[in-house]
Write a structure and sequence with these properties.
The chain contains 5 helices and 8 strands. Helices cover 28% and strands 25% of the residues.
């Protein structure tokens, strides 16, 4: 079971709306000593923290014992500000990480779906954030976005997409993942679309089996 709370946190362009899933009672999952932040898909195409695949991510990470923060980027829902082509959204993500780290002083899994996976990638490519223990990118849109080859942050990376994802064929995702500095892994869910519709259990199994995290900061 989880306690779900909502509110706003301070962002660089104004308040950012959030939703926090926090496990209650005794937490026994192998991720019990971690927290997580999940970023949502493209605001211009209806992406919000309530998007189904972001819910999938939160549910899978919560099942490992982590509190999970979802938030709306600037201009989405009750979040203040306006869409900034992915630039200001990186700073929104930093604000969410700051809030989560203050509330739960423990290593953080940084996850994102589609646009959110790209924003998280760009953040980690530019910032050696030692609070981040692992990166989880779901539905990375490799057809339209190039994965950065050089990352300031050097922790483990896991990419998961469906074989029927219209924004990245398995070949495109594999090529994008191969650009990432190790450690990195990538997996496809057979028959799944961009949103992993109807494939939550397969997704959860991959997360449980393959998500890893660094226990000490990497230089």
């Amino acid at each position: 079971m989880a306690r779900i709370t909502t509110g706003t946190l301070a962002g660089p362009a104004g308040a950012l709306e959030y939703l926090l899933n926090e496990p209650t009672g005794e937490v026994a999952g192998r991720g019990a000593g971690l927290a997580a932040v999940a970023a949502h898909p493209h605001p211009r195409f209806g992406g919000t923290m309530h998007s189904r695949t972001v819910f999938y991510i939160a549910r899978a990470l919560e099942s490992l014992g982590m509190p999970v923060l979802r938030f709306n980027f600037r201009g989405v829902g009750k979040s203040q500000g306006a869409y900034d082509e992915g630039r200001g959204e990186i700073e929104d993500l930093r604000a969410a990480l700051d809030w989560m780290a203050a509330r739960f002083p423990r290593p953080i899994v940084l996850a994102g779906f589609s646009f959110g996976s790209m924003v998280a990638m760009r953040y980690l490519a530019a910032h050696r954030d030692r609070r981040v223990a692992s990166y989880l990118g779901v539905g990375f849109p490799a057809k339209n976005e190039a994965a950065p080859a050089a990352w300031a942050w050097q922790g483990p990376k896991l990419l998961i997409s469906g074989t029927n994802d219209v924004f990245a064929t398995p070949e495109q995702l594999g090529a994008a993942a191969a650009r990432l500095p190790p450690p990195r892994e990538w997996y496809w869910i057979e028959g799944a679309d961009h949103y992993l519709t109807g494939h939550y259990e397969s997704f959860r199994a991959l997360v449980h089996e393959h998500l890893t995290w660094q226990t000490e900061p990497r230089d």
